[in-house]
From TrEMBL:
Pfam families: EAL (PF00563), GGDEF (PF00990). SMART domains: EAL, GGDEF. It comes from Cognatilysobacter xinjiangensis. PROSITE patterns: EAL, GGDEF. CDD domains: EAL. Residues 157-409 form the EAL domain. Residues 20-152 form the GGDEF domain. It comes from the Bacteria. This is Diguanylate cyclase (GGDEF) domain-containing protein.
Length: 409
């Protein structure tokens, strides 16, 4: 069914439903293109048919299932009791594809991502409901459950590819440095480098918007090169005043596949005369778990080059201790959600204590993110946390401003 026919069908169901709640479930089958390249179009078509059959098995008889593309399906879920009812269906679909599809002489794993929007809560017309199901599916791709319900306010600013490409080409992005406090010395021991973009036409663009755009369009390699060189250029001048300072740079695992990544980093270090042991590369826990074996291999190579490795947002992802012990990390960074709640939530405080103890047992430095008040800072200090960062310690500052400030000291 093409999009126009789908919109017509959905419009009819909306008219029939009135104020009744029903769901729009968008299901996208992953890895189908990869399978087609190996086995050909006939086999790929067979996968689509097998996926259709499996979906039909787990949906209710009253649910309508429509295939709108080779790897994409829409299920219309009438008579829902509540939003939880819709998510129960979505999670059932996601779990159904955790076992291989079997057909002819093939067995293939085809994980899915599932996004759900609800009528009339999330929209009363076909275009809005479909777009919001697509937004939910986008979020689902980054979640371990592989399914998500649309959340109002989750739309992100749409930025054209050309804008980011031009901003990188003309060096329109800016490096900001956020201070990191050594809790034992009670002194700044380094800075985390953060990319910022202030577009001349629409103003500041959030990092999650342009970083995701870079990852989705292949610009992430260029953004990584810019970030490394911008960080090292400023850091080298700042370290001339204090050689104890270390600098952290966020790295997307999307660049791990580049054959020259290590050479690219070491070359940038050489150009700006930055020692490798003054630099820590930060990679989020959830991103590492997307392909842990490849991540482990690349991180070992980077660690052998003398660079520090920080597992960022630790505690918010779904890694296992079996993998954690294999990551050649030098730091654990506790996710800000636990740090922010620890004063008021006993469980969060216990999680923070457990992460600190775990990190020390593994000979890792532990950094708390999102420290916003003096009381939280003192609790972390009492728990033996090594370092901390957040608004209470200092907001991020344009690296050029920080350099000017240090030069006058």
């Amino acid at each position: 069914m093409n999009r126009r026919a789908l919109a017509r069908l959905l419009g009819e169901r909306i008219a029939q439903a009135g104020d009744e709640r029903f769901g729009i479930m968008l299901v996208r089958v992953q890895r189908l293109q990869e399978f087609r390249l190996v086995h050909g179009y006939d086999a790929s078509d067979a996968v689509g048919e097998a996926a259709h059959a499996r979906l039909r098995e787990v949906l209710r008889p009253v649910d309508e299932l429509v295939q709108v593309a080779e790897n994409e399906f829409i299920a219309l879920l009438p008579a829902l009791l509540n939003n939880g009812h819709a998510m129960l269906a979505a999670s059932r679909v996601a779990r159904a594809f955790e076992t291989p599809l079997l057909f002819e002489h093939h067995s293939v794993m085809t994980p899915v991502a599932v996004g759900v929007s609800i009528h009339p809560e999330h929209g009363v017309d076909a275009t809005t409901l479909l777009r919001r199901a697509e937004i939910a599916l986008r979020d689902a791709k980054r979640m371990s459950e592989r399914c998500a319900l649309y959340s109002p306010g989750s739309e992100r600013m749409m930025v054209p590819y050309e804008w980011l490409h031009e901003a990188l080409r003309t060096n329109r992005l800016e490096a900001h440095f956020e201070p990191i406090l050594d809790l034992r010395r009670n002194d700044v021991c380094g800075y985390e480098s953060l990319a910022r973009w202030n577009n001349v036409e629409i103003g500041p663009i959030r990092p999650d918007v342009f970083i995701r755009l870079a990852e989705d369009t292949g610009l992430i390699a260029e953004l990584t090169r810019w970030s490394l060189n911008a960080t090292f250029r400023h850091a080298a001048h700042i370290r001339a005043k204090d050689t104890r300072l270390r600098f952290s740079v966020n790295i997307s695992p999307r660049v791990f596949g580049q054959r020259d990544l290590v050479q690219q980093i070491t070359s940038a270090l050489s150009v700006w005369d930055m020692p490798a042991d003054a630099v820590t590369l930060e990679v989020t826990e959830s991103a590492l778990m997307e392909d842990p074996d490849a991540s482990i291999s690349m991180l070992h190579t980077l660690r052998e080059a003398g660079l520090g490795i920080a597992i960022d947002d630790f505690g918010a992802g779904y890694s296992s201790l079996a993998y954690l012990k294999q990551f050649p990390a030098t730091e654990l960074k506790i996710d800000r959600s636990f740090v922010g709640d620890m004063r008021h939530d006993v469980r969060s405080a216990r999680v923070v204590r457990a992460i600190i103890d775990l990190g020390h047992q593994l000979d890792l430095q532990v950094v708390a993110e999102g420290v916003e008040d003096a009381e939280t800072l003192e609790v972390l200090r009492a728990l033996g946390c090594d370092r901390a960062q957040g608004f209470h310690i200092g907001r991020s500052t344009p690296a050029s401003f920080l350099l000017d400030r240090i030069a006058t000291v």
